[in-house]
Write a structure and sequence with these properties.
heterodimer, A: Rossmann fold, 2 domains, six-stranded mixed β-sheet, 21% strand, B: mainly alpha, MetI-like fold, disordered N terminus, MetI-like (chain B), transmembrane helix (chain B), MetI-like_sf (chain B), Aliphatic sulfonates transport permease protein SsuC (chain B), transmembrane (chain B)
């Protein structure tokens, strides 16, 4: 359906070499992630799995261009990442739809920023709303939708920019269990139709194993990549997968890797924008 | 049941509150009656104090007009051609000062709220000017503006500026960094972020500031119209005092109160129309 304006499928190869990120200023500064060496081929679905505060969202923030590396290099299709760009779309845990824009105008935001004429961008937005199954909610305000619907709009709003990379920071973490399972299937369905490179941050092992082509397990802070697990489960994947013996074995392995070693209390969650702001939602 | 309520204490409370907010325009008859009775009691107390020429030593009602005197004076004014001229002159001045304050307050407020340099440059002088009351500006206003009309508009401007400015700063600072970051990821530049994110986010604060500013503009009107002129409600009130026309003083005061209240309501209604998303309700 989007073939009309995609002559050449965007690539989306991510390469990080010796990456490290520092947060905080002055004496309080600390290294969140270090020694990240990572190559992600185009259109791979990669899940970043790790304990709270390990820096997986921070790494995602660097991919989005909201945070800068302290050391090392980070490139998309050979070009160094410098600042946010629509070709690296990001979906946060809490939706960031503009409350003052109707759903359709929210989805059309990216094309509007590119200067696409109004009629054309609204037609595009309708297509993408239909893709996420919300064609009937175009004229609502975001506050009138449920949490799951808000995240669907968010995904449509990012995908309309035809990003080379889709970055997702625990996008279903704030949803109830039922909705989360449904949204995982919705996401896989969309991804099969519009394949892009996906980097999906989660601390839910089932979610990571169900969605990904590959799971990267990260250590506690300072976060490093502990293990790189390829997932060969055939697609399309159904819910039966979670009881598959191979799935269960991999789940046990991830649980082992994620088990806290020294009984330290879990760290506070970091965000792709850096340190959590006091009182911010 | 108790387990569910314990888990989400907000949910149980939120629903009826949202309900009552929607029903606000229709007050129950009993509460309307109570409010009317309160107004009536106030009028009665005034009438008794004025008609019995009550003298409490510290404060005296001996020379004050009764409500009936004031009503007669108001009736007379309503049938005199002077009323339109007075109200018209005042409206033009207040509106002029208010609109100038709106432009300056929103412009400066957005700059201060979004740029540290602008804040450092603009806030110190503004903080010094802010506590100066309108009356204190009169001599300077007369010196600064060759036309007395402009100096009167300036006085109402000083009254309206600060509430609008400070509320705009507050609203612009409160724009969510997450919304700004996601707009940048979608391709928004600096100007687009201001237009699409910061200004709409600050709009509720701006409307509140504008409604307060409209009130203070009327507040400063009598002060402004003491400068000169032949027309204006403030001038009418002040002239009535110098002519010892006590009934008309109260008429002028009440008229200013009514016009001030009416225009604040109009500002809030305009703001309400400009923010249709705040009526949508529900989760955020």
């Amino acid at each position: 359906m989007t073939g009309a304006y995609t002559e050449e499928p965007p690539a989306g190869r991510i390469a990080i070499a010796g990456g490290a990120i520092r947060l905080g200023g002055g004496a309080a500064a600390f290294e969140v992630v270090r020694d990240i060496d990572l190559a992600i081929p185009p259109r791979q679905f990669v899940c970043l799995l790790g304990p709270s505060g390990c820096g997986k969202s921070t790494l995602l923030g660097a991919l989005a261009g909201h945070l800068a590396l302290a050391r090392g290099s980070l490139a998309l299709d050979g070009e160094p990442v410098a600042g946010p760009h629509p070709e690296r779309g990001i979906v946060f845990q809490q939706h960031t739809l503009l409350p003052w824009r109707r759903v359709l105008d929210n989805v059309a935001f990216g094309p509007k920023m590119r200067g696409v004429p109004r009629a054309e961008r609204l037609a595009q937005a309708r297509e993408f709303l239909a893709l996420v199954g919300l064609a009937d909610f175009a004229d609502r305000y975001p506050s009138e939708l449920s949490g799951g619907m808000q995240q669907r709009v968010e995904i449509a709003r990012v995908l309309i920019n035809q990003p080379r990379v889709l970055l997702m920071d625990e996008p279903f973490g704030a949803l109830d269990a039922q909705t989360r399972l449904m949204m995982q299937e919705v996401l896989l369905d969309i991804w099969t139709r519009l394949p892009t490179t996906v980097v999906f941050v989660t601390h839910d092992i089932d979610e990571a194993l169900f969605l990904g082509d590959r799971v990267l397990v990260m250590s506690a802070r300072p976060g490093r990549i502990l293990e790189d697990i390829p997932l060969a489960f055939p697609r399309p994947r159904g819910r039966d997968l979670v009881t598959d013996p191979d799935f269960v074995a991999l789940k046990r392995r991830c649980l082992d890797l994620l088990r806290p070693r020294d009984g330290r209390p879990p760290l506070p969650r970091l965000t792709p924008l850096g340190l959590p702001l006091a009182g911010a939602a | 049941m108790s387990a569910a309520t314990l888990e989400t204490p907000g949910a149980a409370l939120a629903a009826p509150r949202a309900e009552s907010r929607r029903d606000r325009p229709r007050l129950p008859l009993r509460r309307l009656a109570t409010r009317a009775a309160a107004l009536g009691l106030g009028l009665l107390a005034w009438h008794l104090a004025a008609s019995h020429r009550l003298d409490l030593g510290l404060v005296t009602f001996r020379t004050l007009p009764t409500p009936a005197d004031v009503a007669r004076a108001a009736w007379a004014l309503a049938h005199s051609p002077k009323l339109g001229a007075h109200v018209g002159a005042s409206l033009v001045r207040v509106l002029g000062g208010f609109l100038a304050a709106l432009a300056a307050g929103i412009g400066l407020g957005l700059a201060i709220g979004r740029s540290r340099l602008a804040g450092d440059l603009l806030l110190p002088p503004l903080e010094v000017l802010r506590p100066i009351p309108a009356v204190a500006w009169i001599p300077l206003a007369i010196l600064m503006f060759p036309s007395s009309e402009a100096s009167m508009v300036f006085i109402t401007f000083t009254g309206a500026l600060f509430p609008i400015l400070l509320n705009t700063v507050h609203g612009a600072e409160a724009a969510s960094p997450r919304l700004v970051a996601s707009a940048r990821s979608l391709g928004a530049g600096r100007a687009a972020i201001l237009r699409e994110v910061v200004i709409p986010a600050a709009l509720p604060s701006i409307v509140t500031g504008a409604a307060i500013g409209m009130g203070t503009a009327w507040f400063c009107l009598v002060t402004a119209e003491m400068i000169s002129g032949q027309y204006g409600i403030g001038y009418f009130t002040w002239e009535s005092y110098t002519l010892q026309n006590y009934d008309d003083i109260v008429v002028g005061m009440l008229l200013i109160g009514l016009l001030g209240m009416g225009s604040s309501v109009a500002v809030r209604a305009a703001g309400h129309l400009a923010m249709p998303w705040t009526r949508a309700g529900g989760r955020s």
